[in-house]
Amino acid sequence: MDPSSAKLSLKEKIGYGLGDTASNFVFHSVNVLLLFYYTDVFGISAAAAGTLFVVARVWDAINDPLMGALADRTHTRWGKYRPYLLWLAVPFGICGYLAFANPQFGESGKLVYAYVTYFLLMTIYTAINVPYSALMGVMTPSSAERTSLSSFRFVGAFSGQLLISMGALPLVKKLGEGDMATGFKYTMALFAVVAVILFIITFCTTRERIQTAVEKQDKVSIGKDMLFLLKNRPWVIMVIAAILTLSNAAIRWAVTPHFFKYYVGDDGTTVFWFLDRTSLIMTTGSLAFIAGIFFTGMLSRRFGKRNALIGLTILNALSLLAFYFIPPSAYSTMIVVNAIGSFIAGPTPALVWAIYTDVVEYGEWRFGRGTPGLAFSVATLAQQLGIAVGGGMAGWLLHFYGFQANQLQSESAISGLRTLFSLLPGILALGNGLVLFWYPLTESTVAQIESDLAERRGKLAISNDEPPTKAMLGEAPN
């Protein structure tokens, strides 16, 4: 039977998607709020925070590939990747809370505490998110189903981001009763509990079905696995694109609260329902993003994943650049432009992660070596590197432009905020779109890879005196 018929149940797709909701309850809070928390609440300078974001990625450069290789070599009755969702859900929640716990230390003590808690959080994030990402590659052999599964994943991811956009700052205000430090602490405690519960649901509702070539070759060294990845041209291109994508997103995320507080003039006053200006624009952007995700399948079928991703990336870059020309008084225009750009960007994460599963299968097809955990771990590392570069640049450039927390900003600082919120992310997004022109895998090539691997996996099972499973033969599981 054709691999495209290997359908996953709606329950399993929703369950998998909730895993990224869990991840984003902590991780997106870090991306959007941590620099603001460090500078305006905890009392760390923007430059010191920027350095922290970059230094932490030195450890990630070691930690991420090791985690991927470890996951590829894990053998349990639950599979290779699913167990980590159960084992690490609680540590992930605890570390997310500790990053915003606001202990009463002196200046040096605060900086040490920030380093320790941020390093711990990024380590646990890697240890749970790399297996979670790799899990998508072994749930079904069908590229079309993985594209659908990726859409569910990012509906879950951006639903989490929507809830953070809507609720984080209002909750900080409500739970802190005017004390932002207390508000952040209680808000993150709540988010951490939700994240733990959702990761456990993902563990309970998903299954691993695909046996990759690495199953029979666990003695091959990590170094040789890395060489296989570096020979995988489509994978290398996607890693470069990931760095550019997350750099532009991280810069914008990091300075969003600063931009609206100091440039637009958001003083925390409610402007719609319970939302202030910052929360409202993040909420409408998240809603538009989620709406865009539902067009992923249509765009993929109509243009192919590669072409759709290139077009959407360039259009989104233009929307980012347009923000530079919007005056602070035109808040309604900002909402509209942000919503349009977010809607255009909506399908891109699902397309990217669906393409990652294609390039992993290309590696197995081309080199006879399937390493989903390692491939996804380095892809995750590339994204974290992008976030580090973006977050570091945001902190350093805020300092360079003369930003001073909780003060009236200079003309230079205001100009810097506009650049960081618009021009720099837009330029990086354009660069990402150009890089993707070199991505070589067409839809027909992916279909051929699916067919060849289905046949190869069936022969692998037979050669090891094991009856081929339906998933190995490309058939739908019961």
UniProtKB/TrEMBL annotation:
CDD domains: MFS_MelB_like. Residues 1-443 form the Major facilitator superfamily (MFS) profile domain. PROSITE patterns: MFS. It comes from the Bacteria. The keyword Transmembrane applies. Keywords: Membrane, Transmembrane, Transmembrane helix. The chain crosses the membrane at residues 35-60, 81-100, 112-132, 152-172, 184-206, 235-254, 274-296, 308-326, 332-356, 376-399, 419-439. PANTHER family: MAJOR FACILITATOR SUPERFAMILY (MFS) PROFILE DOMAIN-CONTAINING PROTEIN, MAJOR FACILITATOR SUPERFAMILY DOMAIN-CONTAINING PROTEIN. Belongs to the sodium:galactoside symporter (TC 2.A.2) family. This is MFS transporter.
